[in-house]
Amino acid sequence: MSEVAAREAMEYDVVVVGGGPAGLAAAIRLKQLAAASGREASVCLLEKGSEIGAHVISGAVIDPRGLGELFPDWKERGAPLDTPVREDRFLLLTADRAWRIPNGLLPPLMDNHGNYIGSLGNLCRWLGAQAESLGVEIYPGFAAAEVLYDDDGAVMGVATGDVGIARDGAHKPGFQRGMELHAKYTLFAEGARGSLSQLVMAKYNLRDGVDPQKYGIGIKELWEVAAGRHHPGLVIHSQGWPLANDAGGGSFLYHYGERLVSVGFVVHLNYANPHLSPFDEMQRFKTHPALRDTFAGGKRLAYGARAINEGGLQSVPKLAFPGGALCGCSAGFVNLPRIKGSHNAIKTGMLAAEAAFAALGENRARDTLSAYEDAWRGSWVYEDLYKVRNVKPGLDRGLWYGTLHGGAHMWLNDVGLGGLVPWTLRHKGPDHETLRPASEMPRIDYPKPDGTLTFDRLSSVYLSNTSHEEDQPAHLALRDAAIPVAVNLARYDGPESRYCPAGVYEFVDAEGGGRRLQINAANCVHCKTCDIKDPRQNIRWVAPEGGGGPNYPGM
Q: In DSSP terms, which residues pair with 171 in a beta bridge?
């Protein structure tokens, strides 16, 4: 084989990894500050999706607080948030009944009036256009695959992955080396369970002294419903059925736009029963008598799934390290009971940008942005998470106890009596440790999909527009090829075949007898659930070639 050429390098003041709300806000804020001060600041943003917004998926009811600070005139600029919330409903479900909690009993912070229903992916597309108009260099379709370090051990940038490598490692005719992007500061805004963010947290011990991050998997469909069943501005959340009391989660239905309804289901990934299938729980949820008529005569337009940070305040790591910082869901700023994180992502992206810009003005480079740590702890993001810090630990003690406990805790904070509960409950452990042996847990019989209201995985993945180059190294690798059969199948009845919402993992007959795990990597929607939930942490998720994965239309 001929010698591999060295990678070319490009130099920037700041490199941003990830084109979600946090990364885009950081890039925009840097350029805003540079323009206001009459200085130059070169900013590059990498996005592994084929375009900005391609991998972005959220409910979404969007709190515009962060957006309003980034662009006070966002409405005049034409941001795609056109449906204000008009009505909130919160339901507790049993198998055949829906009990509505009166709005007057809900904590005020759960009130969605003043928020907007829309597509977070489309909002990011709009933010991307704003960033480019300010001079940010945006490179979609380029996956940051490696963190680069200088001789002092500080982050000096990232490298994009090589392209044109065959599954066997050979170089195809179109092989190209990745690029190195060097920076004075590198901001990681990859979203929940970002692969490079995990590496820098480990290298710099950023999680020392904080609780494990907790996660849920959110599964979403976008529907076009019949005109008579559409109620623009209606927001419905639920808890309870179809989940058992020992498995946390909930649902959302958001009516917006032109006859659009976003329906989704979130399952907390600390569930114990390996027979549970989050995808099938979501399909079953739509059949509830109080909800199924919403979809009568409608058409499913899109499907997707993504892991969600749920740990809250207790799980936020140290954010700054030599040469860079974590922003948004890379660090975990989701407010779980509100099911909102984009406002906090935008704000933390702005705060990181402000700290980096101040450091550049002092001719600093690749040191630790301690001002960012101080800024976020003094911001409304910290207050937002502090008020709900005990909700998730309460839910982990059971659905009904957790709902009452969390509601009481939020009420006390809302009326200014938060001092009566000064303690902070702790998370018990990481989500991959919670599965019980399959023999100890009840089986769950899920009904077959009807193809009208409920669907199978493969037809759903088709609607995600997921695409990967088939002849490339698998981005889902096993650290030990024996564990899936010897441990996961034998002890837990192969949970990866159920927790994956895209049919990536299936156990098939092996040549010579027995079973083996087949990995259908081309199906992967980049939700990261396998990276989180695998009981032995045996699955290693790395970014595939840039541009691969889902291409979500308006999710």
A: 165
The residue to which tokens 């990181």 are assigned: 352
Rounded CA separation 421/263 (Å):
35
Residues 79 and 521: their CA atoms lie apart, in Å, by: 35
- What is the rounded CA–CA span in Å between residue 355 and residue 30? 10
Question: How far is Cα 460 from Cα 304, in angstroms, rounded to an integer?
Answer: 8
Q: Are residues 440 and 475 in the same domain?
A: yes
User: For residues 397 and 308, which has the higher predicted lDDT (pLDDT)?
Assistant: 308
This model's pTM is above 0.90: yes
Number of independent structural domains in the chain: 4
Neighbours of 166 (CB within 10 A): 13
Listed in sequence order, the DSSP H helices in 379-485 are: 380-386, 391-395, 399-414, 457-463, 483
Identity of the residue numbered 350: M
Please write down the HEC assignment for all residues of 219-269: EEEEEECCHHHCCCCEEEEEEECCCCCCCCEEEEEEEECCCEEEEEEEEEC
As a three-state string, the secondary structure of 363-380 is CCCCCCCHHHHHHHHCCH
Any domain includes 181:
yes
Are 87 and 194 in the same domain? no
What confidence score (pLDDT) does residue 271 get?
97
Give me the domain span that covers residue 230.
83-118+214-309
**Are 354 and 74 in contact, with CB atoms under 8 Å apart?**
no
pLDDT, tens digit, for every residue of 195-242?
A: 999 999 999 999 999 999 999 999 999 999 999 999 999 999 999 999
The model's pLDDT over 182-194, given as tens digits with 9 standing for 90+, comes to 999 999 999 999 9
